[in-house]
Amino acid sequence: MASINGALPSTITGFTEYQEALLFTTERVASVISLLGCTFVVFTFLWSSRFRKPVNRLILYATLGNVMMNVGTLISVNGLLAGFDAPLCQFQAFLVQITDLPALELTSARFLPADAFWNLSMAINTYLTVFKRYSPAQCKAMEKYYLVVNYGLFFFIAFVYCFVSNAAGRMYGNAVLWCWISHDFDAVRLVTCYVPAW
Predict the structure, then answer these.
(1) What predicted TM-score, i.e. pTM, was given to this entire model?
(2) Element (DSSP H or E) covering residue 181
(3) Looking at CB atoms within 10 Å, which of 19, 24, 126, 187 has the fewest?
(4) What angle do CA 62, 175, 157 make, to 5 degrees?
(5) Handedness of CA 178, 182, 186, 191 (dihedral sign)
(6) For the segment 129-170, what is each residue's pLDDT rounded down to a tens digit?
(7) Which positions of the chain have pLDDT values less than 70?
(8) How many helices (H) and strands (E) does the chain have?
(9) First to last CA, the chain
């Protein structure tokens, strides 16, 4: 594979072209399987009123974020190939940043903070129900706060990152498998993604 923007080696990941092809195919197949799972969750929620409980609504909200993330991962390497400044790369990075699915990089599985925050929201609802005797209506009233924090906060951060750059380039760029926060901004990645998830 040729270099991208003159900044990458002959293959994007350092693997052989065959290994890269397998990696990218696996990424896309996994994204399609995840989208099918998301479709099942949404269909089940809409189809049966028995599933419209507060915790299931939170799962639905988290699932909508997973749909956005899977759109980003379906773009796969095409974002990188378009170039770091290309709208496709920036859009992909924005989707990956705002949403919440575990982001697999070559070295480890990483969880973006919104996913952890949706889990926290579910735990808070469980706590409020079990220990504070919140009713379903009271739990439902909490959802607006969960949405503001879990999507609003991370939307704002992801949007701001679209405009951040330094001498090395834009914040959104090469993250090995797709466009996301580039390695030139590892400290920002640590502070705004991994620390909140912990």
Answers:
(1) 0.80
(2) strand 179-181
(3) 187
(4) 50
(5) negative
(6) 999 999 999 999 999 999 999 889 889 989 999 999 998 899
(7) 1-13, 100-113, 196-198
(8) 9, 6
(9) 37
